[in-house]
Amino acid sequence: MAKIIVMTSGKGGVGKTTSSAAFGTGLALRGFKTCIIDFDVGLRNLDLIMGCERRVVFDFINVINGEARLSQALIKDKRVENLYILPTSQTRDKDALTEQGVEKILEELKKEFDYIICDSPAGIERGALMALYFADHAIIVTNPEVSSVRDSDRILGVIQAKSRRAEKGESPVQEHLLVTRYDPERVEKGEMLKVEDVLEILAIPLLGIIPESPAVLRASNVGMPVVLDDKSNAGQAYSDAVGRFLGEKIEHRFVKVEKKGFFDRLLRRTA
Amino acid sequence: MSIFDFFRTPKKASAADQAKERLQIVLAHERAGRDSPDFLPQLQKELLDVIKKYVSIDDDKVAVKLDRASGYSTLEVNVELPAPAKGAARAAAGKVAAAGNA
Ligand SMILES: Nc1ncnc2c1ncn2[C@@H]1O[C@H](COP(=O)(O)OP(=O)(O)OP(=O)(O)O)[C@@H](O)[C@H]1O
Ligand SMILES: [Mg+2]
């Protein structure tokens, strides 16, 4: 049975698109047929992060409006088997995202795919509501920082009240916390909220902790989901999160400051 | 104050601790507001209609507020009646304590 996952946060710029790309790619790497949909109408970005921006011909809104078939708009990833991207429209107005239109496309995708990832726009307006409405799972992307945690709490309230599962009185959307841009060094100095604090406040299960990492920017520069950079700690952390989502028991990594040996420090100085 | 306090640097809560505390306070408030039931506007309107049968008042003279504490909630209804023929305006306020699991 296909599952719909929304990647959401309330607050902007916390790493939803980065996480959608990495998580979706991670699922496909494990053999699940996965489609990532960009719900950020007017601010298309997933295509760049996935490196398929030059292959966009039709988009999500074209399909909703009946101007193109779904198969014409879906872009197959060139690196990973089983991975598809549905880009959003760059120009049209947000009202184009109708509930019936979105539902129809999701129903069609559900017949073909194992997982459908909805990359939500920031905020709690129409685009964000449409991205979360049909979800079975919600991954709440949160930075260890006051406004991000507050907005995550807010979006959790929206999911619990306004999702289809909530409206229909079905079993609730499964919530998962993904803490991103975590900097253990600053946490140790008491400058940044600990993951335990965020967890205590939001009180939902922890899916993963993605460290602040230069690999994320590097990957986005070349249009590659960071999970494919398996040497990077961020890439490994995303891969672990996918494993946990699928039910594997994996310990959290990259949460403590790595103790640097004498030679490491020496090398670092001279590097 | 002992002389030793002079040398001791007071242990201040770290920035992260302050962040956590502030979040816990603001979210406690926001979560309570979020659960406020949708029926309040309707209740307010119906109360107004009932009162209007007996006294003529303006629409903005009835205020309904729900407060939650742990274990019970208070529903506060404020009705401002027009001034009697002579004398100062007087407000009649009624409080209804509604038991419920907040
Ligand atoms: N773990 C990380 N380490 C370092 N930089 C990161 C990390 N995660 C995300 N970023 C950076 O943060 C910025 C915002 O990321 P991203 O676009 O994924 O956020 P978003 O939540 O999708 O934003 P929007 O709300 O605008 O859609 C990007 O520049 C990205 O490179
Ligand atoms: Mg985004």
CATH architecture of chain A: 3-Layer(aba) Sandwich
Shape descriptor of chain B reads: elongated
Count of domains of chain A: 1
Mean pLDDT of chain B: 74
Broad CATH class of the domain at 27-82 in chain B: Alpha Beta
- Oligomer state equals heterodimer
Secondary structure class of chain B reads alpha+beta
**Unreliable segments of 5+ consecutive residues of chain A:** none
Structural class of chain A: alpha/beta
H/E series of chain A: EHEHHHEEHEHEHHEHHEHHH
Largest sheet of chain A: 8 strands, mixed
Pfam families (chain B): MinE (PF03776)
GO biological process, one term (chain B): cell division
Family (chain B): Belongs to the MinE family.
InterPro entries (chain B): MinE, MinE_sf
Structure explained in plain terms:
Chain B: This is Cell division topological specificity factor. Chain B: One of its GO terms (biological process) is cell division. The complex is a heterodimer of chains A (271) and B (102). Chain A has helices at residues 16-29, 46-50, 60-64, 70-73, 99-112, 126-133, 146-162, 164-167, 184-188, 195-202, 214-221, 233-245, 262-270; strands at residues 3-8, 34-38, 75-76, 83-86, 115-119, 137-142, 174-182, 206-211. Chain A is an alpha/beta fold and 271 residues long. Chain A has one domain: P-loop containing nucleotide triphosphate hydrolases (Rossmann fold). Chain A has an 8-stranded mixed β-sheet, with helices on both faces. In chain A, helix 1 crosses helix 12. Chain A is globular and about 65 Å long. The mean pLDDT of chain A is 94. A 3-stranded antiparallel β-sheet of chain B has the order 1-2-3, covered by helices on one side. Chain B is 34% helix and 25% strand. The chains are: A alpha/beta (271), B alpha+beta (102). The complex binds adenosine-5'-triphosphate (ATP) and magnesium ion (MG). Magnesium ion is lined by residues 16-17, 40, 45, 119 of chain A.
